[in-house]
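From the shared-data thread, chain only:
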Amino acid sequence: MDYFTLKKYIIEVYKYCNVQSFPIDCFDLLKKYGYMVLTYDELKNISSELYELCSSYSEDAMSHKDYKIAAYNSSQPYTRIRFSLMHELAHIVVEKAIGRNLTEGEADFFASNILAPRMAIHYSKCRNTSDVSRFFGMSKEAAEYAYENYISWYKFIQRNNNRMTTLDRAMYYHFYDDTHKKFVYCRKECRHCGQEFVNSEWRICEKCKRIAEIRGNMYDSNDADMKMLNKWIYNMSKKQGIL
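Structure, as tokens:
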């Protein structure tokens, strides 16, 4: 299959499920398509026959279209579970649309790009595999492929005088926010003031970071809540190399 076509279905999933932020909620996406998401152990308690079918077919995950069940092996690393579930979503969504089975490579391509679309990697300013892994919730192996593929995608854009394809434009405008006037790849609620802020790995907004004066004296405030916030920011800043 043309990989551009797979990207088209990814954008359709984003629209149907109202995906507005990364990392995506893989469980929620499957549920929005009417699937019950279970661990293999939970499936075993419901139907030993289905459990034997799923576990013998894959050590990672499997979906059953008749029963509308997506099951996964909870003993696998969480990042691998996320990838496996999106692999199954490819079989569920794309196969229904095109009327044929996907190859495993096609389903893997879908999973990689829905977890970390190359445009989102670009706007989030990921500098390497580790950045992609941390920000998009992917294994090191999956993140390495995604980042290398992003480099190829970006070179293609440059060769075409920075002109986006039709699908790239559709991706851009889906995540473009009129209020913030930019491509928004991440939305969070500030843990301190409760306001929404965008495009940051922090869990507090810029205003609260300035109030805490992360580059000044971290412990001057007599307010207990501000002291706790200051200490948290200080530790996070050191961890991320900001201080």
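The radius of gyration is 21 Å.
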